[in-house]
Design the sequence.
């Protein structure tokens, strides 16, 4: 009964606003995936992070979203000619040290205001940057141009926010919510955390649900100068623990 | 022999005229296959191709690659000749077995025993040579250029130089065509954007394949949408770096179509590439994705620095 009602509603929307007004995700041609070699690939339903779309990593507090974003960024520096970070003030370049990162391909844009962040992200996405990590608020009026710019060039846009506002949630094609489940202790020392990553929006393929991540921090205090840039001795491990059942539509 | 003369001599014969279009197509195919093997490549309709190997670092590899590509392009083993000039190279190739190479080091010595009918002269001039008793190229070579010029005109002088192995002719290098286009006419006018995008992607694929064969890239892209009862609409742009792959072409064309608001259903679609240039000008870091737009990203970063100050951009390497 519900299906009939839904079908009828879809038909009336299509009659009124045109056939393109409402399309099932499964009927759309999927965007090209960028295989990031992280558990995120399994959540998108296309085998990689969608190119030309905005992806969101959300979650409050320490839940692993930034670690995963940094792992994506490090991987992107190997796969793309340009990997960019739009930094609203919280990005520390030394945070990348434990990851095997190709620093020659990395550029950080320090955006003191959201307006500048929006303009920079849109300009760079339109120019064809391979990967853009957004770590700043982007005003609503920049989201449309950013989305179309990325769509045109095929740039991978990843935004890390605690809780997205309505406009950002609407503009994104793929959104994963992180929640910390547990800390991991080893001989009295904090070595990582367990977090669940749940796909809360997926416009590129039918939603694939949820997975649990185990994020391991590098062990032992070590000054940043001890690391050779671009080479990691104790990489952070992001391990997928056990996949769960797909979420219902 | 002229066609009319042949018809007169053999009235029951069926004469099949050459298919000019097919010949041109095969010539283009061969040109595209050999284009990047030497600085100068000339292909003639009669089925002869020349590569000027002067300055080529490893001529042997070029010749081997030429043989491989010709075999792939036309499905036949080519006859190959290597000589100091185009005339002697053509005669050397004509005397080689399929797939083999005849190499000539001394052109005059090689040419001397060959019949003078090999010279590029018309039938009347060749008959005159025969009457003069000049039946081999060696015999032609012994005559002074001015003497034969007095008999055959300017062609006589050239004939002597050719027979002596001086090779006065230069090759005319083939250049990729400067224009290409793909077109699709719809049975029923289309208004579904997804359908247009699908067709545009296929057309971009066809164009990219053609550009790949020609070793060319598009500097100018134009999309035209035709309607049943009104003038077509068009959108065009000059691109900074030549586009050559399907993804690059469709990246631009697809973005236009996505925001296009046509005034009526589309009956025809054209994708024109009015200005082509050698795609070899691009130096790609082939191992890095999106490197084709690397310069655009650098330019975008510079623009941001101009607007908001140098300190806004920090390179990871610094």
Sequence:
């Amino acid at each position: 009964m519900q299906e009939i009602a839904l079908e009828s509603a879809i038909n009336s929307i299509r009659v009124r606003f045109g056939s393109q007004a409402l399309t099932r995700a499964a009927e759309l041609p999927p965007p090209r995936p960028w295989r990031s070699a992280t558990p995120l690939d399994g959540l998108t339903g296309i085998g990689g992070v969608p190119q030309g779309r905005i992806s969101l990593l959300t979650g409050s507090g320490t839940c692993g979203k930034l670690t995963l974003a940094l792992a994506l960024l490090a991987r992107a520096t190997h796969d793309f000619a340009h990997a960019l970070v739009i930094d609203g003030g919280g990005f520390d370049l030394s945070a990348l040290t434990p990851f095997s990162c190709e620093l020659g391909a990395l550029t950080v844009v320090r955006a003191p205001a959201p307006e500048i962040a929006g303009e920079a992200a849109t300009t760079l996405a339109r120019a064809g940057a391979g990967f853009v990590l957004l770590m700043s608020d982007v005003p609503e009026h920049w989201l449309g141009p950013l989305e179309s710019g990325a769509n045109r060039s095929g740039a991978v846009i990843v935004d890390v926010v605690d809780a997205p506002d309505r406009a950002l949630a609407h503009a994104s094609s793929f959104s994963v919510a992180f929640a910390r489940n547990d800390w991991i202790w080893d001989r009295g020392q904090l070595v990582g955390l367990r977090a669940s990553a749940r796909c809360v929006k997926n416009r590129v393929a039918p939603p694939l649900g949820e997975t649990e991540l185990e994020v391991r921090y590098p062990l032992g205090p070590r000054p940043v100068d001890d690391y050779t840039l671009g080479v990691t001795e104790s990489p952070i491990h992001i391990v997928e623990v056990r996949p769960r059942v797909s979420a219902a539509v | 022999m002229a066609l009319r003369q042949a018809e007169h001599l053999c009235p029951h014969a069926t004469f099949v005229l050459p298919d000019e279009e097919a010949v041109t197509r095969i010539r283009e195919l061969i040109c595209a296959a050999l284009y990047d093997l030497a600085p100068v490549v000339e292909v003639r309709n009669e089925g002869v191709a020349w590569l000027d190997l002067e300055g080529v670092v490893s001529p042997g590899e070029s010749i081997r690659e030429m043989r491989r590509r010709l075999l792939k392009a036309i499905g036949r083993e080519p006859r190959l000749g290597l000589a100091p000039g185009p005339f002697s190279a053509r005669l050397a190739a004509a005397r080689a077995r399929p797939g083999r190479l005849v190499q000539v080091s001394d052109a005059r010595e090689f040419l001397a025993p060959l019949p003078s009918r090999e010279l590029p002269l018309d039938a009347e001039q060749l008959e005159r040579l025969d009457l003069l008793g000049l039946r081999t190229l060696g015999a032609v070579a012994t005559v002074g250029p001015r003497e034969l010029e007095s008999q055959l005109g300017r062609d006589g002088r050239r004939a002597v130089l050719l027979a002596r192995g001086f090779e006065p002719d230069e090759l005319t290098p083939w250049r990729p065509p400067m224009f290409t286009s793909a077109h699709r006419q719809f049975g029923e006018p289309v208004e579904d954007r997804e359908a247009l995008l699908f067709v545009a992607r296929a057309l971009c694929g066809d164009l990219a394949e053609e550009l790949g064969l020609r070793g060319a890239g598009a500097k100018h892209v134009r999309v035209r949408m035709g309607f049943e009862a009104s003038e077509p609409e068009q959108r065009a742009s000059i691109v900074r770096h030549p586009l050559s792959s399907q993804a690059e072409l469709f990246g631009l064309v697809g973005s236009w179509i996505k925001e296009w608001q046509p005034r009526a259903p589309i009956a025809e679609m054209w994708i024109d590439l009015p200005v082509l240039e050698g795609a070899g000008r691009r130096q790609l870091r082939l191992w890095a994705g999106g490197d084709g737009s690397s310069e655009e990203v650098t330019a975008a970063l510079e623009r941001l620095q101009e607007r908001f100050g140098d300190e806004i951009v920090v390179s990871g390497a610094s």
In short: Chain A has one domain: 30-243. The CA atoms of residues 17 and 160 of chain A lie 34 Å apart.
